[in-house]
Each structure stands twice: as C-alpha cells, then as structure tokens.
Amino acid sequence: MQKLQRRTLVKALAAAGIASSTFGLQACSSNDKSQANGKRVVIIGGGFGGSTVAKYIKRFDSSTQVTMIEPKKTYMTCPGSNWYLAGLVDVDYLTHDYETLKTKHGVNVLHQMATGVDAVAKTVTLDNGEVLEYDRLVVSPGIDFIYDAIEGYSEEVAEIFPHAWKAGPQTELLAKQIQEMPQGGRFLMVAPPNPYRCSPGPYERVSMIAEYFKKHNPTATIMVLDPKTKFSKQALFGEGWRDVYGQMIEWYGSQDGATVTKIDVASKTVYSDFDEVSADVINVIPAQKAGKIAFTAGLTDDSGWCPVDQDTFESKIHKDVFVVGDACIAGAMPKSGHSASSQGKMCAAAIVSSLNNLPMPPTRNVNTCYSLVAEDYGISVVGVYENKDGRLSGIPGAGGVSKAGASLQERKMEADYARSWYQSITKDIWHS
Ligand SMILES: Cc1cc2nc3c(=O)[nH]c(=O)nc-3n(C[C@H](O)[C@H](O)[C@H](O)COP(=O)(O)OP(=O)(O)OC[C@H]3O[C@@H](n4cnc5c(N)ncnc54)[C@H](O)[C@@H]3O)c2cc1C
What is the model's pLDDT at position 27? Predict the structure, then answer.
C-alpha cells in the first residue's frame, strides 16, 4: 500500500469538517487507482447520505473502489422543494446529476435498483440480476411510507392527495393542484407522526403555500391537522404566520383531536375527533419507516428504523454494513439532509479507517435546518451532537435556534443564509 501524506489527508478531513490533531489515519493509500485490494465499497442510494459517503471515501483514500447504486440519473432534493411550491425556484434549481462524482472522484455510479443484500456472502443483487461483491456496504435509501395507518389512504390515493415527501413527480403534481385551486378555497395538510423526515418540513411547506396564496389566491385558507401535540420551531413559525399571513394558517394538534383516522377520496373529506373537514387540495404526509431495502437486508428493528453504532454508523445487526441518513437511528439527530451528509462524512472516515487497519478518529455530527416562513423571512435551528452513553446527544451550548421577536432585517438575513446553505451543501455533495 502506498502512503498518503498525513498532511494531505488532514486537509481533506478539514474540508469535511472532521479534522482532528489526534486523528489516527496516518498511512492510507495514495493515488494508485489500479487495485482495490480488498477495499471494495458498495453504496445503496445516491441521496444526501449515500453521495456524501461516496465522495468522501474517494477523498480520504482514492484507492478504494467505490460503487454507488442509484436508479435515478438525476436527483431532485427535498430541501428547496417547498420553495418550488411557492414559485420561488424551478425544478432545475433542485436537480443534481452524478457527473462530478463519476468524473472527478472516480465513483462508479450504476443506475440500477438494489433488490437484495446477502450480509454473510457480502453481496448485493441488482434488479438487472447483476451481483456485486463488497468489503463494506453502505445503505442510505431514505424513507418509505406506512400507508395503512389511515383508513382509505393507500399508495394509489397518494397519487390523488400527493405527499410529495420524496421530491419528484408528486412535488410537481402538488404545485399544479395549488396553482389550480379555486379562489378562496381550502388547502388541508395531514401532518405525519414522529419520527419522520425533516421535522420542520411540513410547517415550512404550509408557510410557502401561504406565500404563494398571498400573491395569487389571497382569500384561500390553510388548515393543518397534526397527530402531534407540538412541532419543531413552533413558536417561531407561529410568530411568522401571524406577522406575515394573519389568519390564513390554522394548526390543530392531537390535543384538539386532530389525529386523522380516515380519508374519503370522492368527497375530499378527512375524519378525526376534531371534525370532518373537506378541502379543495389535500396533502397527506403519511407515517414513515426506513426505505424498503433496509427491511429486505434485515437491517431494521421493531421501530422500523436501523440501529447503528453512534460513531461509525455500522449496523448493530450486520457487521461491515453501515446505514446513514433518514433510515438510521441516530439518537437525537433529526432526519435531515444536513444530518445525512454529516453522518456520511463520519461513516466514510470509519470505513477508510477500518479498511486500512487504523483507529477511528473522534467524531462530531452537525445538523442545521433553515426554514423559509416567507421569501425574505427565514428561521433556523442548529445542533452539534456527540456520542453520549451510546446515543448521539446534543452538546449543551453548541448550536441554537433563531431568537423570538427578531427584526425583519434579521429574518431576511436568515432567508439569505438558507439559500446559501442550499448552494453550499449541494455543491459540496454533487458539484465539487
Ligand atoms: C419537503 C421537505 C423539505 C426538506 N427540507 C430540508 C432542509 O431544508 N434541510 C435538510 O437538511 N433536510 C431537508 N429535508 C430532509 C432531507 O430531504 C432528507 O433528510 C434527506 O434527503 C435524507 O437523505 P438520505 O440519503 O437518507 O435519503 P435520500 O436523500 O432520500 O436518498 C435516498 C436515495 O436512495 C435511493 N434508493 C432507495 N432505495 C434504493 C434501492 N433499493 N437501490 C438503489 N437506490 C435506492 C433513492 O432513489 C434516493 O435517491 C426535507 C425533506 C422534505 C420532504
């Protein structure tokens, strides 16, 4: 094995945000790409988690052979998809390809679906029948939906009342429905129970739909029926909704009896103890679980998510298999793109360390969630996490949340930071 200069590796890690003066990776390999030498990594999923792992393994140790399996030729981000519903950005803004990962970093991207994993034989089967061998496997498939939790709801009904909780055709369908809603009509969101992808996401979404209605349908109303008693950044969203949209948005939680139990498609009505409510556009965001392949691979526990070591993200069920992103149980870290990418960097360092028989460096994970309440009105929450007694926990005093009662100037600055965050994280993962 040729030697990578420690200085070069530490520089790469610094860019990843995990440099440490005590970092133990001293002798990884160099630019020799000819041989994988027992260093074959297969990654399932090319979203925030999987693409980050792919890029950073190649940055830390370019001699590792990295194959990423992702059915889509381009990836549309959920972050920013609410801005699209408001008409603030277009589909191109949200869409990223895998060219830089392929050509600059040497990641082998296969546009296939992984259909099976044999964790004993260390193989992954693809839907074209091909079988790939791995030394380490990373699974980052995102989420799947629990359709049968609400009577009358199903995968087919989701094409009529789109969840749009995976960005793509349903996001475009929901935008069309919002644009075609009658003047003075009602938009109804059925919010998901915990745990789910992107805790502030539903509330940013109704904010962005209000932004659209304010311009194009000012007498429209928005109602949220929520099976939870509270939600992320609730006080800040409430302040913004009152200040920017007056009475347009009404929110009801489970304490109001707002847990929806039944849906009738024909009459566009949802049922709960709160009331029977009819609406012109209905956005049902169902309960969630880990992406299907995580179940097929036997990586989930009774919770429907994947238990992992909180430093390395190695599965607690299958050795040499790692799970990052929404599908894994990462203690107090929210299921977000930023979390998935942060975990992806730690996981890449863990894999490079283990493949080169080096100690794992100390880890820290970070999450930042920006939400737009209006085009020029942003709020945010930041958390830094460490492994405390086997669970990722927020470090007290590190991170924070936007302050209540801030000036419009401060809210505008946060909205600008939100757009900068999007540009920098998507550039880091897919375009640099
Ligand atoms: C409306 C909305 C707004 C959001 N806003 C933000 C935000 O502002 N900031 C933020 O940080 N996060 C945000 N999020 C959350 C963010 O989108 C997710 O947390 C993030 O995408 C998780 O990354 P992941 O890699 O786990 O999954 P994904 O990014 O979903 O990637 C999973 C990939 O795996 C692929 N895949 C699945 N199964 C297979 C298989 N069997 N074989 C091969 N490939 C497979 C899929 O095609 C997909 O591309 C938002 C989410 C929503 C819904």
Answer: 35
Residue 389, Cβ neighbours under 10 Å: how many? 7
pTM to 2 decimal places: 0.94
**Distance from C-alpha of 210 to C-alpha of 339, rounded to nearest angstrom:** 28
User: What is each CA distance from 55 to 16, 163, 324, 345, in whole angstroms?
Assistant: 10, 30, 14, 9
Q: What is the pLDDT of residue 10?
A: 41
pLDDT beneath 70: ranges in the chain:
1-36
The tokens describing 108, both together, are: 């082998």
Taking the CA atoms of 141, 142, 148 and 152 in sequence, report the sign of the dihedral they define.
negative
Ligand 1 pocket by Cβ (under 6 Å): 44-50, 69-72, 75, 78-79, 81-82, 113-114, 140-142, 165, 197-198, 201, 205, 291, 293, 325-327, 335-338, 340, 369-370
- Residues 6 or more apart whose Cβ sits within 8 Å of residue 90: 84
Q: Which tokens is 386 given?
A: 């460490």
pLDDT of residue 163: 98
Which residues face 35 on adjacent strands? none
- Please, which residues have CB within 8 angstroms of residue 20's CB and are 6 or more apart in sequence? 13, 361, 362
What is the H or E stretch that residue 275 is in? Answer: none
Domains and CATH numbers, the chain: 40-145+288-431 (3.50.50.60), 155-284 (3.50.50.60)
- Give me the DSSP letters along 130-176: -EEE-SEEEE---EEEEGGGSBT--TTGGGTS----SSSHHHHHHHH
The whole-angstrom separation of Cα 432 and Cα 56 is: 11
C-alpha dist (Å) from residue 197 to 142, 335, 395: 8, 5, 22
Question: What's residue 36's pLDDT?
Answer: 63
Which tokens go with 183?
């003047």
Q: Give pLDDT, residue 35.
A: 52
Q: What is the torsional sign of CA 259, 263, 268, 271?
A: negative
The 3-state DSSP class for residue 308 equals strand
| Closest C-alpha to 209, from 280, 155, 154 | 280
Out of 42, 43, 44, 48, mutate this one to test ligand 1's pocket (max ligand atoms within 8 Å of CB): namely 48
Nearest CA to ligand 1 atom 16: 337
d(CA 233, CA 78): 19
